[in-house]
Amino acid sequence: KTHEVGTKTANELGLYDMSGNVWEWCLDDYTDNSSKAKAEFTRGKDSGSTLRVNRGGSWNNDARYCRAANRNIRVPLITLIRLGFRVALAPDQYEVNTKIALSGTVSLELVKVEAGSFTMSAKDGENYNNEVSHTATLTKDYYIGKYEVTQEQWEAVMGNNPSRFKGNKLPVERVSWHQAMEFCEKLNEQGKAPAGYHFTLPTETQWEYAAKGGNKSQGYKYSGSNTLGEVAWYNGNSGDKTHEVGTKTANELGLYD
């Protein structure tokens, strides 16, 4: 028969009954060997019809079935007196809506940046003295704005417009660091952040990693190209003013400007 949970010794993480008591359902479709198993949460809520994995063994099994490495399979509709489950908490990032409504037709678009390593401040022949080339590693995925914050986005949240060059789709400017952080905090206060997240400014490392294309980087000198005019407004083509965001080519991650 089954026994009360937690009456045997826990494992190193403080988890109980992962060997024995009842078999436990796993999220995965069964594959014929474990090297084909998915490492992350990939299935949605669909029930499907394929075989599912069970793990852990039960009160009705001998020792070899209770090994942590043992795999078992059953059809997903089956119910047994030796079969149960435990829950997992999946990160919200798998379901994040990357288009955040601000006001009316004004929205804020985000792009997911997957974790990885890159060479930060890489020497390219035009370096300044404080750029020290080194390997930097980001261990967590994050999201970053698809465009610079525009004046219409700023006005929707802050109710004013400090910019010198006026235009809804132009980037907001003449904004201090404190004001930029206040914008982020107001988004948080208004409940605009997806569950499990909060808005803030990107770190310097996150910013450069995203600018270089993240794990999709092609090694360009500028963000998305080796030819600056393809991706940027600068003193050679700007006409001494800002321009609407997103009118040049995006980089490898789909980030503009």
List keywords for this structure.
257 residues; alpha+beta; 4 helices; 13% helix; elongated
What does this molecule look like?
This protein has 257 residues and is an alpha+beta fold. Helices cover 13% and strands 17% of the residues. It contains four helices and nine strands; from the N terminus they run βββββββββαααα. It has a four-stranded mixed sheet with strand order 3-2-1-4, with no helix packed on it. β5 (99-103) and β6 (106-113) form a beta hairpin. The longest helix has 13 residues, at 177-189. The chain starts with 22 loop residues before the first strand and ends in a 26-residue tail after the last helix. The mean pLDDT is 91.
Kindly report the average pLDDT value: 91
Number of strands: 9
Helix content: 10-25%
Radius of gyration: 25 Å
- Tell me the strand percentage band: 15-25%
- Major β-sheet strand ordering: 3-2-1-4
Number of helices: 4
**What's the overall geometry?**
elongated
Helix/strand order, N-terminal first: EEEEEEEEEHHHH
Describe the main β-sheet briefly: 4 strands, mixed
- N- and C-termini, Cα separation: 64 Å
Uncertain segments are none
> Structural class of the secondary elements?
alpha+beta
